[in-house]
Each structure stands twice: as structure tokens, then as C-alpha cells.
From TrEMBL:
Subcellular location: Endomembrane system
PROSITE patterns per record: DHHC (PS50216)
EC number from the UniProt entry: 2.3.1.225
Top-level taxonomy: Eukaryota, Viridiplantae, Streptophyta, Embryophyta, Tracheophyta
Keyword Membrane among UniProt keywords: yes
Pfam families, A to Z: DHHC
Keywords on record: Acyltransferase, Membrane, Transferase, Transmembrane, Transmembrane helix
Catalytic activity: L-cysteinyl-[protein] + hexadecanoyl-CoA = S-hexadecanoyl-L-cysteinyl-[protein] + CoA
InterPro entries per record: Palmitoyltrfase_DHHC, PFA4/ZDH16/20/ERF2-like
Comment on protein domains: The DHHC domain is required for palmitoyltransferase activity.
The protein's name: S-acyltransferase
Length: 276
């Protein structure tokens, strides 16, 4: 277990905020609105605790799971039908080498300047998990964003419901009112941000693309249109198949961050040409 990964100010901030959000949602807003002793209060506290626990579990998997590096023994296949001489094969191999780490680069792998290595199916480097988001931890990242979005929206609803329920006519309520306003701005703002991020990664999952590939694809589509051709992302094999390749073939395990037995070596991927 790489405990040193937790020695990051970003991770410390995340853990402190999660603790704060859990405390104020359960023991301030929910307790004031419904009372934790009531059956409704117990139900809501249990639901929020479950979502928060799954969010923390997903976060830990994202931090600790290696996103996938290129094996030192990896050697790409060079297919050059037009020229079979030794020099052209050597040229083909050089094109598949990373200029920064001098390692052979599999399809969809990209070099991370922070991790200083090539990452399999790299999406981006995330400072909040002190790790790259890549082939082996992308599912955990998607579930993290999902549970974090649900938790913050749920907390926002409880906060707003409690605020509307309270009697604010007393003069000494001003400090509490400022606390509710400040907390509401932070939590609701985070809900919108995380919801937008979740929508983005749902789109990427359905298309079986990454953030890097999306922007590369926009340029490729522009270049193709100038030549009167159509561009299609080569790894888009249909919505359901795309989701299954990333989240797994069993729908019941799609939101389980540790269910990753379906994830392959990350050195090759099915393409739309194979499914056409």
C-alpha cells in the first residue's frame, strides 16, 4: 500500500471537507430538520452514510490503484505492408517510442509529465487524488465522481429544506444564518461542479474515449473534414459495449469501485473496425 500518496495537501483537503460535509449534513441539518431519533431521520442518515462511505472507498481506490504503466518488456507490432526492409521497420518502431521516457508506447497511452512515465489509456492527471486517471483506475474515478455528486446534491437538498423550515425572525440568529448561507454556497456550488464533471465522464464513457482523445479527435475531425472525409473515434464500438468495457459486463457491479476483474492488460483495445 503506497501510504506516501496520502502525503498531499490536496488529499488532506478532500478528507477534511468530506468529514465536514458528513458532520454538518447529519448532525446539523438533518438532525435539526427531522431529528436523528425519528424513523425518517434514521433512514436519511443511513442512506447518506452509505453514499458517503462508497464515495470514500472510491476515493481510496483512485489514490492507491496504479493507473497502469507500460511493461518494460512491451514491444509493439510493426505492420508495414508497403515496405518490408529492415530500415522501414526500424522507422516504424521509432514512431511508437515516447520522446520523453524513451519507452515504446502502446495505443492510447500518453506520457504524464508529473508521474514522469507513460500511462495506459490516460485520461488526465488529477491533483485531488495525487495520481493519474488511467486504464486501471478510471472506473473508480467515475464512481467517485458519481457518489460525490449524489452526496453533495443530497446534502444541498437537506440544507435548503432545513433552512426553509427554520424560523429566522430572532435577532441573534444572524451568525447561524451566515453559516447556512456560506455552507450552502459551497455545497451547492460543488454540486453543480461535480454534476458537470459527472456528465462529461458519462459522455466519455458512452463514447469510449478519454479527455485527451476527445481533443485529439476534434483536431482529427477538422483535418478529415478539410479532405472531405468523415472521422470516427476508432475505439467507439457502440454505447452499451463501450460502457461494458469500462464499467464491466455485469450491470449490478457498475457502481462498485472495486469490481475490476474485467479490466485487461491495457496494451490493446477492440476497435470499431472489428465490430463493423
Amino acid at each position: 500500500m503506497e501510504v506516501k500518496k496520502f502525503l498531499s495537501i490536496h488529499i488532506l483537503c478532500v478528507l477534511i471537507f468530506v468529514g465536514f460535509l458528513y458532520y454538518v449534513t447529519i448532525f446539523v441539518f438533518l438532525d435539526d430538520l427531522l431529528s436523528l431519533q425519528s424513523s425518517a431521520g434514521k433512514f436519511h442518515s443511513l442512506f447518506f452514510t452509505s453514499v458517503a462511505s462508497l464515495c470514500v472507498l472510491s476515493f481510496f481506490v483512485c489514490v492507491l490503484k496504479d493507473p497502469g504503466g507500460v511493461p518494460s518488456s512491451y514491444l509493439p507490432d510493426v505492420e508495414d505492408h508497403e515496405a518490408s526492409d529492415q530500415e522501414s521497420k526500424r522507422s516504424g518502431l521509432l514512431k511508437k517510442k515516447c520522446e520523453k521516457c524513451s519507452e515504446y508506447k502502446p495505443p492510447r497511452a500518453h506520457h504524464c509529465r508529473i508521474c514522469k512515465r507513460c500511462i495506459l489509456r490516460m485520461d488526465h492527471h488529477c491533483a485531488w487524488i495525487n495520481n493519474c486517471v488511467g486504464h486501471r483506475n478510471y472506473k473508480a474515478f467515475v464512481t467517485l465522481v458519481f457518489y460525490a455528486t449524489v452526496a453533495t446534491i443530497y446534502s444541498s437538498v437537506i440544507l435548503v429544506s432545513d433552512a426553509l423550515h427554520k424560523d429566522w425572525r430572532f435577532a441573534d440568529m444572524m451568525p447561524l444564518k451566515l453559516f447556512y448561507i456560506a455552507t450552502g454556497v459551497v455545497i451547492i456550488g460543488l454540486s453543480v461542479t461535480l454534476g458537470t464533471l459527472l456528465g462529461w465522464h458519462i459522455y466519455l464513457t458512452i463514447r469510449n474515449t478519454t479527455t485527451i482523445e476527445y481533443y485529439e479527435g476534434k483536431r482529427a475531425a477538422w483535418l478529415a473534414s478539410k479532405s472531405g472525409m468523415n472521422y470516427r473515434h476508432p475505439y467507439d464500438v457502440g454505447s452499451y459495449k463501450n460502457i461494458s468495457l469500462i464499467l464491466g459486463p455485469n450491470m449490478l457491479k457498475w457502481l462498485c469501485p472495486t469490481a475490476m476483474s474485467h479490466i485487461k492488460d491495457g496494451l490493446s483495445f477492440p476497435t470499431s473496425r472489428e465490430f463493423s
